[in-house]
Amino acid sequence: MPSPDVDGQQRGYVIPIGGAEEKVNNPEILSRFVALCGSADADICIVPTASQLEDTGERYQKLFTELGAGKTHFLPISERSDAQNEDYLAQLETCTGVFITGGNQLRLSTILGGTPIATAIRRLNAKGVHIAGTSAGAAIVSQHMITGGNTGIVPTEDGVSLAPGMGLINTIVVDQHFNERNRLSRLLSAVSYNPFLIGIGLDEDTAAFIDENNEFTVVGSGAITIIDPSDIEYSSMAEARTGDALTLLNLKVHILAAGSRYNISDRQGFTK
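-> structure tokens emitted (272 positions)
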């Protein structure tokens, strides 16, 4: 389940974004995030750790300010020692929203994993702070994080690489740039390990706004592909040899465009 409620407070939204979100012409996703965080009363903390570009934090800071956020700042965390910084932890405590940028998700897991910063982000979400992440920042919100894999349609025994994520939600596994980079096979490979997981494939400029009831609304110009293996009758993963194509019987697949909703707990989709 997502981070549990604390003292009766509602959990904040968890918002994985498929990457390449629109930033100029119609920045619907980012605008909605700013509004959720409080608009003029928002205090948005940006975590650019996944990116190795020096100006990533500043660019998002400027962008959120232009979209009406009252206060923005970024944490220049590039080494594990930075994730112990008491000043950075103090800045996190005042925020109403956290935004995790794209880049390399293994930088996120190896630099932030098990640190006070990661613990604080999870705790803040449980207390009502909204957590959004784009591309690599989307992948790490789940407990099981995709780090690489094959492209194409047919899943294989070695079709995906996984690592521990941040664990804001543990019932889903997220893939990003989904249709643009032809990543169906690796998402199918990921859910074939255990039908407990729901696969969520996010197109670019598309986000899942997951609320405290574990239900999300699709926002953006693309679609979200849902792979639900809960009624799977057979998976050949246990018998497959390295590189073998997999047999998967009775999977459910949903394609949800903007405005559609999906309840993760009930595994039910809804139209607008």
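The chain has one domain: 14-262.
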